[in-house]
Amino acid sequence: MSSLGRSQLAECDLHKLYTEHHGWLQGWLRGKTGCSQRAADLAQDTFLRVLLARARGAAVYLDQPRAYLTTIARGLVIDHWRRQQLEQAWLEVVAQLPEAEAPSPETHLLMLESLIRIDRLLDRLKPKVRQAFIWAQLEGLTCPQIAQRLEVSLATVERYLATALRACYALHFEE
User: Fold this and answer.
1) CA within 20 to 30 Å of 97's CA: 26, 39, 79, 106, which one?
2) How close are the terminal C-alpha atoms of the chain, in Å?
3) How far apart are CA 7 and CA 60, in angstroms?
4) Long-range contacts of 8-11 (CB under 8 A, 24+ apart)
5) Residues in domain RNA polymerase sigma-70 region (predicted)?
6) The model's pTM
7) How far is residue 50's CA from residue 78's CA, in Å, rounded to a whole number?
């Protein structure tokens, strides 16, 4: 157990957490990503999350600092992989476009950022809400068809779609 024990994370503890565990965390991340540079970036992002949690006033108790850091870092690795998958899918779509229709670098970046935001939004929805929304928007299924596939009532599908659309609305107007 670390000397940080059950005390709330103070500034001196944050420094100690960093100095005692940064090297270990970076090595753990290098094993997960296979890239020293990516591991260094993700390690820094992990400690930034700890710092931001502290700044928000969130209580951070560290009985097992490595487990705490691993939990944060694992989420960042998953985010990284998802971003890579989205970017690869977007690049495949762009590669199929005629050269005259290819997006500018600025548009390319904006589209990728939008896809990432939409992915995060969908990930926050309950599975049936997400599935109903995807079927309605991408496959063009009607509410009765979705109700049949999900084995729920028509009113439930309408609630699911309303929930998803409210989330989209909030995402669109959050800026």
Assistant:
1) 79
2) 43
3) 8
4) 8/59, 8/60, 8/61, 9/50, 9/54, 9/60, 9/61, 9/62
5) 17-85
6) 0.67
7) 17
Three-state SS sequence of 82-108: HHHHHHHHHHHHHHHCCHHHCCCHHHH
C-alpha 150/C-alpha 63 separation (Å) is 43
Helix or strand (DSSP H, E) at 172: helix 154-172
Cβ neighbours around 113 below 10 Å, total: 10
pLDDT tens for each residue of the chain, 175 residues long: 444 444 455 666 788 889 999 999 999 999 999 999 999 999 999 999 998 888 887 767 677 889 989 999 999 999 899 889 989 998 998 899 998 898 998 998 999 888 888 888 888 999 999 999 999 999 999 999 999 999 999 999 999 999 999 999 988 887 5
| CB contact at 8 A, 161 and 144 | no
Domain boundaries, the chain: 1-103, 125-175
CATH architecture of the domain with residue range 125-175: Orthogonal Bundle (1.10)
Tokens representing 56?
């928000």
